[in-house]
Every structure is written in structure tokens, then in C-alpha cells.
Amino acid sequence: MTASRETISKQEKAKTERAQITARYNKSIKKKIFFIFFLFILVIIAAGIAATIGAYQISFTEVYSILFHCLFHNVESYEQYAVWDLRLPRILLAILAGVGLAVAGTMMQGILKNPLAEPYTMGIASGAAFGAALAIILGTSIFGTGAVVDDRYLLIGNAFVFALIPAFVVLAFVLYRKPTPGVLVLAGISMLYIFSALTMLIEVPANPDAVKVAQFWAIGSLERASWQDIFPISLVLACCIPLLMWKTWDVNILNSGDETAESIGVNVKRTKIFIMMVSAILTAGVVCFVGAIGFVGLVAPHICRMIIGADNRFLLPASAMFGAVLLLLADTIARTIMAPLVIPIGIVTAIIGTPLFLFLVLKKKKEYW
Question: Which residue of 47, 51, 201, 247 has the fewest CB atoms within a 10 Å radius of its CB?
């Protein structure tokens, strides 16, 4: 009888513990969903504020009135030109670029198990800048020679192809050398320096005006944002992000170790190749429009990981929203801090990201991997 009571007591205790664990898990999930929703609202607010700030001040009510008239009426005014033709494409491009870079950075950090991995430190952004510099300064494109500066999409295509070269080099390291995460990041940084040096080399004898345009690409800028850019970059994001979201559970399993992942049934090699390739295409699709904007893919995932943890099912959308907010904030600062001059957005993101980069380099504790 006593043994029976002890058995029942143990069962009730186990049931209570399971209920407590389930309650804590559900609470954690709700917290993560709330954080993502909060960031989404923050993106909308930041976009609204950015639309009102500029050389010509326009109130919130005027902005939304202009948007309404542009959608349903054809009324031409200076305010409409400022909001619809100048600010809105720039805001949307900042959101899309922030989302793309943050998502790529999140997945690269996940598969490489290194908080320093991101599109900029992997050399992908510098490769795109070199491709653009070839087109701008030398008039040379993989599609042929000629006035590629006048043909925007030939320049963009050049930047896209050269952005993939560092990605393939890093991928080759993963496949054939099986390096440690630290060595892999060093390989990416070496690609960054190589393409940066090549860019500076072709700038030495070049026309100063062409060099100035190329430097904007090398630093990153939204100065040339237009409605023509929104559809192609949206298409790249729409194709790549669902594929990466589909692989988030596999990345979670990889965080427990390659051997554990293999024992569960995850093809580690194939998964890493797939994620690296899609992340590289996503990054190339972004930087070929906005240039080599650094540190967004470093800052956004790291901060979100500190707040909601390393579950990539929630970390990926949270980092995407945070990246959009970060780039909107950086662009607003770039447009206003030295108005009427507009500084390249890459300078602002570098000022924000460099201290965090140094912090991560010096930090010894591995809290998330």
C-alpha cells in the first residue's frame, strides 16, 4: 500500500514538473513572438519618422495625405516629389537591405557557430564593391565593355557576380579543408582585404569623379535609391528568405554539434552548403543595389540572440526586423547629421558596429554555441 502511494506521488510530481516545464516553454514562446511583433511595429514607426525628416520638413499627416493622393490621384507638387519619389524608395530600400543583410548574417553565424561571421566579414560585400568599381572606373563588365555606368543593371550584374566569388571561396574551405569557425572567418576577412586592395588599385589612375562614385559603392549608400530597385531586391528576398526559414530547425540541431546532428539524420555537409549558397545569393542581391554596407549582419543577430536566445525559428524574423530598424535609423542619421550633405550610410553602420565587433573579438565566453 505504501509502495503504491509512493508511486502515485512520484507520478504526480513528474506530472507537475512537466506542467511547469510546458508553462515556462509557452511563456518563452510568447515572449519571442511579442518581441518580433514589437520590432515590426518599430519598423513602421521608424519608417514614418524617416518620411518626415529631411531638408524639407513634412508632418506625419502631410506624409500620409501625400501617400493617399499618390495611390488614388495624380496630384503633382514638391511635397509629393520629396515623399513619393525621393524618401519612400529610400526608406523601402533601407528596410529590404536591412532585412536581407540581417537574415544572411544570422544564418552564417548559425552554421559557422561564430558571432563574427556576417556578409561583410566574409568578404562578400567587398567583392560586390570591386565588381561595381570595375564597371564604374574601367567601363568593364562580365557582360562586355562599354558605358556600363549609364546602364545601371549591367553595373548591378557585375557587382552581383563578383559578390559570389568570396562566397564560393569560403564554401570551398568548408567542403575541402573542414576548418574551425575561427579559421573560416579569417578566410573571409582575407577575401575582404584582397578585394578592397584591388578596388583601391584600380582607383589610383582613375578619373576623380568615377572614383567618388566607386567609393560610395565601397562604403555603402542609399543615395541612388529608386522605385526601379524595389522589385528586383524584393524578388531576391522573397526567394531566399523562405528557403532559409525552412532550414532554421536544422541549424538549431547543428548548434548541438555536427556529430549529434548527423546521428539525428541531418546531412550536415549538404545543409551547410545549401545555407551558405542561399545566404551568399541573398547578400549579393542586396549589396549589388546598396553597396558594401557592413556590420548590419553582425549587430542585429547578436543583439536579438541576447534577448530571445538562439532558437533560429524566432531569431531569424527578429533579426530581420531589427536589421530593418537599424538601417532605417542609420540612414536617417546619414541624411540629417550633416544636412544638406548626405554621408554614406556605411559610415554610420561602421561607427555603430565596430565597437561591438571589437567586443566580440575580445570576448572569450561562448554563451550561445
Answer: 201
